[in-house]
Amino acid sequence: MTSAPLHMEIEKEARTHQDSLTKPRGALGRLEDVACWFAARQGKVTPDPLKAHIAVFAADHGVVEEGVSAYPSVVTGEMVKNFARGGAAINVLARQCGASLSVVDVGVIPDLSNIEGIEHQKVRKGTANLLREAAMTPAECEAAISIGRSVAMRAIAAGSNLLIAGDMGIGNTTASACIICSCTGASPEMVVGFGTGIEHAARRHKIDVVKGALARVAGRPKSELLQHLGGLEIAAMAGFYLQAAESGVPVVIDGFIASAAALAARIIDPAASDWMLASHTSHENGHTLALAELGLSALIDFEMRLGEGSGAALIVPLLQSAIALHNGMATFESAGVTDKDG
Length: 342
Ligand SMILES: O=C(O)c1ccc[n+]([C@@H]2O[C@H](COP(=O)([O-])O)[C@@H](O)[C@H]2O)c1
Ligand SMILES: Cc1cc2nc[nH]c2cc1C
Fold this sequence. Notes:
Blueprint (H helix, E strand, L loop, with lengths): L7 H12 L10 H13 L9 E8 L14 H12 L3 H9 L2 E8 L11 E2 L17 H20 L4 E7 L3 H13 L3 H4 L8 H18 L7 H5 L2 H16 L3 E3 L2 H13 L7 E3 L8 H8 L15 H5 L1 H13 L3 H4 L7
Parallel strand pairs: 1-2, 1-4, 2-3, 4-5, 5-6
Helix pairs in contact: 1-2, 2-14, 5-10, 6-8, 6-11, 10-11, 11-12
């Protein structure tokens, strides 16, 4: 399967419509581009209001045993319980922007099968340590991708026209840094950041871990990167993005981990990024490099580095405003306002 085609002629019509609205041309800046971007993807000169679905994918990472995170792996499962109870940042932001939310356990170490309010789709209890061996088997990686695809498919069938993938996984900035280095060619020094808040010495060690992992997979084809260096939640997010693009539904990309998943999706389908909008620039080093590689430019920078889909959820109201302005403003002609050429 490949990504759905864009409606470029509709985008042109939407641009003409934008230019007829009662404001100096271009005065609404990127809000104008956003409205036209949705027009091209919905195939409607005046796009429908957005009905967003956020899926948070959670999994643990074997590489945590190398001392790459400020927090222990146990926090991943504890945060999943917090998501299920509605107490995390993403719960608040989802309520705020009117998005539906699902939480998917694709590979958390503890048994959460007795917890209500989450989808139980555990592929395995955390990945293997990517410094020493492949994070997943090819079959496990495929299974995680399929889970992400089916979550996207269900959200679309339920009427969502905007999809957001969030991540929860202690250690996943190390896996993401490996993927981003592999896809951009940038050095670990440029890409590796402080994640959940490690010290400078720990970051230097994290750089060495990423270097070691990259050396371990040197010479392997790009198609094996996700399986070797990724995480179960990152693979599920990649599948989620691939399905959205194939179904012709836009996605908003969150931060560092989401961008690594987007790069992994692009290895499988290079056109998948046509359906991606970048929300924010994460404070994590190397995020701008990842976005540049994706050909995306973030809409805001609030110096966030949370994950969970939080940055993407934060901009949903801005996207709604862009469409409401595009659809609801009077034109120079209808309002009897003189345009610049008289
Ligand atoms: O999304 C981001 O840009 C981001 C940047 C830094 C950290 N995080 C979150 O923090 C966790 C990973 O951090 P670490 O230090 O354990 O690799 C994981 O749960 C992510 O959702 C997320
Ligand atoms: C508490 C906590 C919440 C998070 N949400 C996403 N990543 C996280 C990492 C930690 C440590």
